Amino acid sequence: MPLAAKEEMSSTLGDPCVFFPLAADPAELETRFGTTTQLRKNSRQEFTRKNPAPHQRSAWSNSARALGIEEVLLGSGVGCRSSGNSGGGLLSTIKSAVCSALPSGRATSVSAAAGGIGSVSGSVDMVVNYNSGQTSLFATGGGGLGWNGGGSLTATTGLVYGLDGTNSGFSGPFKGANFYAPTPIPGLGAGGSITHGGGVTVVSVGVSGALAGRYGGGASWTNTTNPLNVGKFSGFAPLDYVGYLLRRPCN
Fold first, then answer.
1. Quick check: 133 and 232 in contact, CB under 8 A?
2. Which of 142, 184, 197, 240 could anchor a disulfide with 222, C-beta 3.0 to 4.6 Å?
3. What is the pLDDT of residues 140-168, one digit of tens each?
4. How far apart are alpha carbons 14 and 2 in whole angstroms?
5. Residue 195 CB: number of other CB atoms within 10 A?
């Protein structure tokens, strides 16, 4: 016999799930073999009266033992799994991965900062939520360590990850970093920032103008107020509606 055929036969014979496909469904076993179970139970009644067990076995255990399935499965260390449950688990895993990759909102900010190597900053922020359509306004204040050109004005917009439907996750302390490089327009730099706090991450791009220097950037720490809600879908741009529709299956 060819070696491949021998290996296939050995694999099949060694798998109890091939011969006992109902092992994954205790209810089906009990339905089909309930009569056998009852006969076995009747034959053991006298023994049970004399030797009462401290714990009752389940219907599945009795059925499996009556057919000799329990010993086979336990001896081989193998269990059978329903293909339907496996498929559902895979779909849930895929859905979770896709929803985690999709942004949950967008933030637009205008900020001003004063200082050279260190700075003090403040900003006004608007957040649109892709889970609920809620639009909220915030005020943010904080500081930074890095070159600020004596004074700067910055406008940014970016994607927000980790929001629920209330925008409350945008409140509280955030830490991050930013960098801006010169553009062909004198005194204007372009770049971006990443900030994180309270399970929410904001990835932004923008432009910045400074009093001195062609580059800017550094680390920042800020604190943001609670949301001031201004309605549903206020300030939504066309791409925001796309983000809102993409997140419908995630809610």
1. yes
2. 142
3. 999 999 999 899 999 999 999 999 999 99
4. 19
5. 23
Q: Which of 123, 125, 135, 103 has the alpha carbon at shortest distance from 235?
A: 135
CA dist 205 and 180 (Å) reads 10
94, part of any domain: no
Each residue of 67-92: b (16+ CB within 10 Å) or e? bebbeebeeeeeebeeeeeeeeeeee
146 found inside a domain = yes
Amino acid residing at 161 = Y
Band (86; pLDDT cuts 50, 70, 90):
low
Query: Could you tell me the residue range of the domain that residue 135 belongs to?
Result: 105-250
Model pLDDT, residue 100: 92
CB 108 within 8 A of CB 124: no
> In which band, very low, low, confident or very high, does the pLDDT at 38 lie, cut at 50, 70 and 90?
low
Residue in 9, 10, 25 with CA at minimum distance from that of residue 80: 25
